[in-house]
């Protein structure tokens, strides 16, 4: 298994979950931001797990990222908008072959989600979804993660690794 766990994360919650999933997947897995997951790196992967925060009920859009950028000073912790959105990363993902899974971080109930769009794009690129989308919870608009979520993420990563056996 050569797995990458790719994430978009403005306040670090999704990044922390991605690292925990990679730990669970095992030594052949790496967590990478959308800026780090360049085509050469992705080309060697036979598993792609991708995740993002849920913003305004969906996979973050350019519009919501622009709104957050304009209101950056209103947040106690400045948002990190230095890496591309997962939506843009998925749009430029070269065709490949392998398995995929998706996750999102969110506060709680929402009429929509991000993992459906992520899995659809991964499937179009040749990475067959191997599990249902997974949700991880934060306790406020910019986090922190709810206690126990990193353990859940490690356990989910280990579950994905077992699907490979
Ligand atoms: C502008 C904005 C919109 C959000 N919209 C939603 C939402 O629709 N549903 C939800 O459950 N959480 C929502 N959240 C909470 C984020 O999903 C949550 O804080 C996420 O874990 C942030 O991930 P990150 O730290 O990786 O950027 C929103 C947060 C912000 C700042």
Keywords:
165 residues; 20% strand; 6 helices; binds flavin mononucleotide; alpha/beta; Rossmann fold
Plain-language structure description:
The mean pLDDT is 96. The protein has helices at residues 13-25, 39-43, 62-70, 86-91, 115-124, 149-163; strands at 3-7, 29-33, 47-53, 98-106, 127-129, 134-137. Strands 1, 2, 3, 4, 5 and 6 form a 6-stranded parallel β-sheet that branches. It is an alpha/beta fold. The longest helix is centred in the last third of the chain and has 15 residues, at 149-163. α5 links the parallel β4 (98-106) and β5 (127-129). It starts with a strand and ends with a helix. α1 packs across α6 (149-163). The protein has a single domain (3-163), classed as Rossmann fold (3-Layer(aba) Sandwich). It is built from 6 helices and 6 strands. Bound molecules: flavin mononucleotide. Flavin mononucleotide (FMN) binds at residues 9-15, 53-57, 68, 105-108, 110, 138, 141-143.
